[in-house]
Amino acid sequence: MTVQLTDTDRSHLQRALELAEGGRGKVSPNPLVGAVLVRDGAVIGEGFHAELGGLHAERAALEDCRERGEEPRGATIYVTLEPCAHEGRQPPCVEAILEAGILRVVVASDDPSEKASGRGPGILRDGGVEVEFAAGEEAAAARLLNQPFRKHARTGLPLVTLKMAMSMDGRFSTPPGDSRWISGERSRELVHRWRAEHDAIAVGIGTALTDDPLLTARPTSAATYRRQSAVGSSGTKARQPARVVFDRNARLPLDSQLLATLDQSPVIVVVSPEADAAALREAGAEIVVADGIAAGLADLGRRGITSLFLEGGPTLAAAFIEAGEVDEARTFVAPIVVGARVLSGGEGGAAGGVVLDPPHPLPPAREAALHSRVETVGEDALIVARFKEW
């Protein structure tokens, strides 16, 4: 049952949403979930899903309640996602709620996964527990909190976030021989935080050949960027995402930094059916044979990758846009003018710009963002545009 909540209910759900952020970058492929226990108007327990395999938010809140010496019987629990009823890495949360004698459960959003959707609330209601689903801002915020989880549950595909950095004259890189970055130091630090929050980072073979990148997450400070950007940040210890190279002809050098650092995180190379990837496989890379971007994403989804951070140059970006596979774009615009005469040299090319050469032109139709915002990160402007919601 969806209801209009009281101001008190909304306040507790907002706190649960804040708590859920504590698991960002640590619990995938599980969702971010926070919970608050309230009895007689007082908060008696709080919790969130903090690590994969660890306590779910509801059980964490109950444990906190008991550590405070409080009694959960008769309480209301506010939770950002409907309580689970299936056995996974943890036992079902509905069992803990029923055993604790909780009388009311207020849920911010549904769980769209086949094994969970609607089961938990049904069991709770059969057990005499009042279950209410929120509407309005808190419900929308809870859905946005778990876009990777929701898309993967509904489609089997990872959520794709495109990151770009450009100068004011539309250049994605400086000319050959110029080692300057387009974006500023704070923007680059924020990108490392985003990397740690995603399951995988992707580039095209042009970027891999030109830059020989590591594609690891190397953040330094969490607090500054939690204030700096509402897009997200997590704790100080970064997990390392898988690294994906879209490499149709299997050209990734065997002496690349990516293959030299397989001990840090896996490297997945997406190749065409015609490519000879035997040497890359022998070197330790995981090989995905796919005819096109959509097929490649489907394979990544089957590997449990729920979020893909797309960092490759303009050619790969244009290919994903043309395929309709970008869910969100985050673009840094730096207050500089590169002024290079060459607009595009292909993936990773000299002074690549917003005007792209064939075979990957921008599609003629414009796709308007569902939501967008602009904020300041250091000296740069950051434009965040969401094109799809799940």
What's the layout of helices and strands?
Layout: E1 2-3, H1 7-20, E2 34-39, E3 42-48, H2 57-67, E4 76-79, H3 93-100, E5 104-107, H4 119-126, E6 130-134, H5 137-145, H6 147-155, E7 159-166, H7 185-197, E8 200-204, H8 205-211, H9 223-228, E9 242-246, H10 257-260, E10 267-271, H11 278-283, E11 286-289, H12 293-302, E12 307-310, H13 314-322, E13 328-333, E14 371-377, E15 380-386
Parallel strand pairs: 1-6, 4-5, 5-6, 7-12, 7-13, 8-9, 8-12, 9-10, 10-11
Antiparallel strand pairs: 2-3, 2-4, 13-15, 14-15
Description:
The protein has a nine-stranded mixed beta sheet with strand order 11-10-9-8-12-7-13-15-14, sandwiched between helices. The protein has 13 helices and 15 strands. It is 29% helix and 20% strand. Helix 1 (7-20) packs parallel to helix 5 and helix 3 runs parallel beside helix 4. It is elongated and about 65 Å long. Residues 222-236 and 342-364 have low confidence and may be disordered.
Brief characterization of the structure:
29% of the residues lie in helices and 20% in strands. It is α/β, with parallel strands linked by helices.
Task: Give descriptors for this structure.
390 residues, alpha/beta, 9-stranded mixed beta sheet, 6-stranded mixed beta sheet, 13 helices, 29% helix, 20% strand, elongated
Low-pLDDT stretches:
222-236, 342-364
The rounded distance between the terminal residues' Cα atoms is: 21 Å
Whole-number radius of gyration? Answer: 23 Å
Largest sheet: 9 strands, mixed
What order do the strands of the largest sheet run in, or round the barrel if closed?
Answer: 11-10-9-8-12-7-13-15-14
Number of strands: 15
What form results from the Cα inertia axes?
Answer: elongated
Helix content: 25-40%
Mean pLDDT: 88
Count of helix runs: 13
Please write the string of helix (H) and strand (E) elements: EHEEHEHEHEHHEHEHHEHEHEHEHEEE
Structural class: alpha/beta
How much of the residues is beta strand, in percent?
15-25%
